[in-house]
Amino acid sequence: MNNKRFKLSPPQILVIGFAAIIFIGSLLLMLPISIHPEGRLSFVDALFTATSATCVTGLVVVDTGTYFTTFGQVVIMLLIQVGGLGFMTMATLFSLVFKRKISLKDRLLLQEAMNQNTMEGIVRLIRKVLLYSLVIEACAAVLFTIRWAVDMPFGRAVYFGIFHAVSMFNNAGFDLFGGYRSLTQFVSDPLVNFVAMFLIVSGGIGFIVISDVVDYRKNRKLSLHSKVVLSMTAALIVIGALVIFVFEFTNPKTLEPLSWAGKFWGSLFQSVTPRTAGANTLDIGSLRQATQFFMIILMFIGASPSSTGGGIKTTTFTILIGSMFSMIRGRDDLVLFRYRLVQERILKALTITLLALFLVVAIAMILSTTEDSSFLSILFETTSAFGTVGLTMGLTGKLTLIGKLLISFTMFAGRLGPLTLAYALGPKKGKELYKHPEGKMIIG
């Protein structure tokens, strides 16, 4: 017994690592230097904010732009960056800078963190992740700075540009404009809309897809994963924009007062942001209930694997939809882009979806007894937290102590993924050495 060493599995290390970052971030946000003199932040509110930033969600109980000092805002921005790229990716960056050898254990952790099936080329992928992230954020920061330098001092415009580039690319949704307004004042601004949506989609499709797209000119092909992600992401954005446009066209509180250009940008942005971004250019609470429920579905699907976003992921949703049509057509195999998917992938997609559904339903049911709000608002908030989206119908600031803790846990579970959390809490056992006799059941 004494010779046995206590070892943590990769999922357990990821859970502990994210929890440690959140705890450190909470302590930093409680420092007097982080808060304006007239403000006061309890530990629960600090924990909620740190969790929201590290899990790149964007739900806030205090206004980021007016409540925190520049130091506090920088802490939030660093938490977003570390949480979006993953603490193992940041640790690898320091290892590469100081030329430290990447051990086999580190590679296993990176494989788990990036949701990869193999360790082959994992360090090369991390290098690309860091390069692409910095280049995309830097270019976006420059464009934001140029736009906002018209409305504010240049130094402030630079700071705003950097903060919002980091926040949007990592699909965090934090903003510095104050008054919980997000980007509503730029609903008809082409530059802000385009740059913000490009950042959201770039961070949401995943680093593997970005790498595939960048290398396309050289390889002249895309992997099955990239084809599925790009096609499903495009389909969800287009369908989402059309649905929102139709439902909100005559809504006097959202699209009706806007010009045709404003209607276009407003519909498109609200379709892109459920990819787990959290920023909004229309008042979410003023949307029609049909639109709000439709956005709940989009938020539940979320972004794509190996990205900065949450949700069950676009690939999981594609497998579920594809399996349904295969079953309807009487086919034994699921075929996507002329590739057959093994049964294990389908079962994993089903497991992730059911775990996510159970989590969202359970948390929403508990919150419906602790919070004084409509069930649609509670379900919206819960799904937003699980998908690490950050959109809200106005419930976040009214949450009770229990509500804040439950939403914090939901954000944490959503960022890590329900399956990773399940593996961490109950490690997988070895394969069974025997099989039970086959049974038959009537289904449907």
Descriptive report:
The protein has 444 residues and is an all-alpha fold. It has one domain. 62% of the residues lie in helices and 1% in strands. The chain has helices at 10-29, 43-54, 64-67, 70-85, 87-97, 104-113, 122-148, 154-169, 190-205, 207-214, 216-219, 224-248, 260-272, 289-301, 314-328, 343-370, 375-386, 401-416, 418-425, and strands spanning 334-336, 339-341. A hairpin with a 2-residue loop joins strand 1 and strand 2 (339-341). Helix 1 crosses helix 2, helix 1 packs across helix 19 (418-425) and helix 16 (343-370) crosses helix 17. The longest helix has 28 residues, at 343-370.
Salient structural properties:
mainly alpha; 444 residues; single chain; 19 helices
Q: Sketch the major β-sheet.
A: 2 strands, antiparallel
The beta-strand count equals 2
- Tally of distinct domains: 1
> What count of helical segments does DSSP give?
19
Enumerate the spans where pLDDT stays under 50 for 5 or more consecutive residues: 1-5
Q: Please state how the strands of the largest beta sheet are arranged side by side.
A: 1-2
> What is the overall silhouette?
globular
Radius of gyration: 22 Å
Question: How would you summarize what this structure contains?
Answer:
By secondary structure, the protein is mainly alpha-helical. Helix content is 62%, strand content 1%. The radius of gyration is 22 Å and the shape is globular.
List the helices and strands and how they pair.
Blueprint: H1 10-29, H2 43-54, H3 64-67, H4 70-85, H5 87-97, H6 104-113, H7 122-148, H8 154-169, H9 190-205, H10 207-214, H11 216-219, H12 224-248, H13 260-272, H14 289-301, H15 314-328, E1 334-336, E2 339-341, H16 343-370, H17 375-386, H18 401-416, H19 418-425
Helix pairs in contact: 1-2, 1-4, 1-6, 1-19, 2-4, 2-18, 4-5, 7-8, 7-9, 7-10, 10-12, 12-13, 12-14, 14-17, 15-16, 16-17, 16-18, 17-18
